[in-house]
Amino acid sequence: MPHVSRFSVSSIRAFLACLLASASLAQAHPHVWVAYTASVRMSGTSIVALDERWRFTEGFPVQLVGVGQMPAQGLLDAALTKRFHDEAFVSLAHASYFTHLFVDGRAQVFGAPTGFQVSVEDGKITYAFRLPLAAPVDVRGKSVELGVWDPSYYVDYEMDSGEAVSLGAGAPGACSIRSFVDKAHPIFNGFVLPHASAIAC
Asked: Superkingdom, according to UniProt (predicted)?
């Protein structure tokens, strides 16, 4: 009987593990792609809400809300907007609308979104809404991180531009924001590192 070295067995096991991981990644790749922007609304050095905009670049099924025909461009009417809200948006409440705000490492709680709008821009579905915090949080001198991601990686959220997250008009001049790759909150079992923004005041 041929001898199989311990090194060979280890190599085979490592190879099989890589194959399994690759298969899992292939099966769970994103099915929906969203390019987002967010404007941080502040009162002094307290964050009070986020104005978010999601542009579905690929994979958003209009059939999800049973809409047979969409306008070519512009805002949807009230009836269509309500259908999107009730059938394809409000269910995201359990996931905090995939929005993550950490202050000194503590996840912040959001209230119900307001001002929900749906439009068609260059053939792409776009959501716009305001996401208020359950209570304003003073971020002066604290470590603050903001990001939008789906932990399951079913939806791939990417910043719509290099500095897609910005400070609103009410933010003090001393506050600043920068984007970074978040190594502290890996998603999809650690295979993907989301992009996030650090806010300093």
From this structure: Bacteria
